[in-house]
Specification:
The chain is an alpha+beta fold. The protein has two domains: about 45-215, no CATH class; about 295-460, Hypothetical protein af1432 (Orthogonal Bundle). About 40% of the residues lie in helices and about 20% in strands. It is built from eleven helices and 17 strands. The chain has helices at about 1-40, 240-290, 300-315, 320-330, 340-345, 355-360, 360-370, 380-385, 405-420, 430-440, 450-460, and strands spanning about 40-45, 50, 55, 60-65, 75, 80, 85-90, 90-100, 105-115, 120-125, 130-135, 145, 160-165, 165-170, 175-180, 200-215, 225-235. The strands form three sheets. Strands 2, 3, 4, 5, 8, 10, 13, 14 and 16 form a nine-stranded antiparallel beta sheet that branches. A six-stranded antiparallel beta sheet has the order 1-17-9-15-11-12. Helix 3 (about 300-315) packs antiparallel against helix 4, helix 3 (about 300-315) crosses helix 9 and helix 7 packs antiparallel against helix 8. The longest helix has about 55 residues, at about 240-290. The relative contact order is 0.10.
Length: about 475
């Protein structure tokens, strides 16, 4: 039973420790994930690693490139001299594309792109989302307006502009900039993670048309100043530590259920044990009552000896299980008296030598009676050896000192004390001072000195009382 209790305590400690580990670990994991997802990230093009037209960062790659091909750029009028020679082209129109590439396996959310204008130019058309133009920044007379130039007829344009055949031309000067807000309806937000299977980078592509005066068809403006602001969203389900804690939680649930099952089984086992112990004790008391009924003066003697023996065992540091075992053994210590004739047990006068020899045989009889009682280990020892003396002058075997089983030495002290402290058919109980004197005088002779000392302490503390 003690082993079951120890295992149950160990399982309880493991279950609590695992639960604390899961709570702390998952709290840290969710906090880290929250901080990761809510932190705004800023990638300035000037800080990126330049690879051709690309600006490379850990999370993203940004390209600002021309579309190319015959429809990617065109001349918007020329100026000739009197002889028909080309003086200069009025302007070149070019389609530029801003490409944002997600390099990670997480999702990019809440992103915006800011592009600074490197020289004087006009923006004529854009797609797909809204462009927020900041015009006149360097002059200090900044104007700000959000426009979708693909649907310019829906707006009252307040920025400096002029109308051309292809639509409005918004003047932008060096230092001006625009901020791009993605079109959610076209799937520009969020930017999905890189695809593992095809190892393809997920990207978003936006476009704007710029006109630059006095430049040739192959001219490309240098849009190398700008920034991308965004958040990264990492799914906690992709974090391997999350599944570690899920596994730990499964283990915890298993441990918790096991603990409940163990406790229920232990409860049933304890109830059954108490029931069995009650049956054993009632059976033993019935047998003892039957034996002690032969001599009315000894009624209650075996029960008191058993109680004193258990108290001594507790005082000596025995376990709860051992104390209970000693109690049962002491309860049956005089069972051999059932074979002793009534006229000897109840004789009010001093026994003859022959009668005394018959009386002494109750120890051997007791050992034989309990020989096959194997449910309680050593139960026959108390009956057989409780009249052995520490100095070796006892019976039936005349063993001495530490050779006498500790249980028999405990019962010896308890039995002698109760015999002196109780009324017998041949005398009254002895006075308290006489009993104490006998105990001290026979210390190391009849009695184990250590056990006698424990009995004296129990008497002194009031735990055991004397009748006289």
């Amino acid at each position: 039973m003690a082993i079951h209790k120890k295992e149950n305590r160990l399982l309880t400690v493991i279950t609590i420790a695992l639960l604390i580990f899961i709570i702390i670990g998952t709290s840290i994991l969710f906090l880290q994930n929250h901080l990761y997802n809510t932190r705004e990230r800023v990638c300035r093009l000037s800080d990126g690693k330049r690879e051709g037209t690309s600006f490379v960062f850990d999370d993203i790659t940004v390209d600002i490139i021309t579309r190319g091909g015959e429809s990617g750029a065109w001349i918007n009028g020329v100026v000739l001299d009197d002889d028909g020679n080309l003086l200069y082209q009025k302007s070149v129109g070019t389609i530029y594309e801003l490409v944002v590439i997600n390099n990670t396996y997480n999702t990019i959310t809440d992103w915006t792109a800011t592009v600074y204008i490197p020289e004087e130019m006009c923006v004529n058309n854009t797609w797909n989302g809204d462009f927020e133009y900041h015009q006149g920044v360097a002059s200090g007379a900044e104007k700000v307006q959000v426009l979708d130039l693909a649907e310019y007829s829906n707006y009252d344009i307040t920025l400096d502009h002029f109308m051309a055949a292809s639509g409005p031309m918004i003047w932008l000067h060096e230092g001006d900039y625009f901020v791009y807000y993605p079109d959610l309806t076209l799937g520009e937000m969020p930017i999905v993670p890189k695809q593992k299977s095809a190892d393809k980078e997920s990207s978003i592509r936006i476009g704007f048309i710029m006109y630059i005066e006095r430049q040739g068809l192959g001219y490309v403006a240098d849009f190398s100043m700008g920034e991308i602001r965004y958040h990264m969203h990492a799914s906690i389900f992709k974090n391997p530590f999350f599944w570690v804690f899920v596994t730990a939680l499964i283990i915890w649930v298993s441990c918790f259920l096991s603990m409940i099952i163990v406790k229920l089984n232990l409860k049933r086992l304890l109830e059954r044990q108490k029931h069995d112990e009650m049956i054993i004790e009632q059976t033993m008391r019935t047998i003892v009552n039957f034996i002690e009924a032969k001599d009315a003066s000894t009624m209650g003697h075996s029960l008191r000896v058993a109680q004193y023996s258990r108290m001594l065992a507790e005082k000596m540091g025995f376990s709860e299980e051992e104390c209970k075992r000693i109690y049962y053994i002491a309860l049956m210590h005089d069972c051999g008296k059932i074979y002793i004739p009534d006229e000897i047990l109840g004789k009010p006068a001093k026994l003859t030598d022959e009668e005394y020899e018959i009386m002494k045989k109750h120890t051997v009889y007791g050992g034989e009676i309990l020989r096959d009682f194997t449910s309680i280990d050593g139960i026959g020892t108390g009956a057989l050896s409780h009249h052995e003396r520490y100095d070796g002058k006892g019976y039936p075997n005349g063993i001495a000192g530490e050779d006498i089983p500790i249980i028999a030495r405990i019962i010896c002290v308890s039995d002698a004390f109760d015999a002196m402290n109780s009324r017998r058919c041949y005398r009254s109980n002895l006075a308290a001072d006489v009993i104490l004197d006998e105990l001290k005088k026979n210390r190391g002779k009849q009695f184990d000195p250590v056990i006698v000392d424990h009995l004296l302490k129990l008497i002194e503390s009031g735990a055991i009382t004397m009748a006289g």
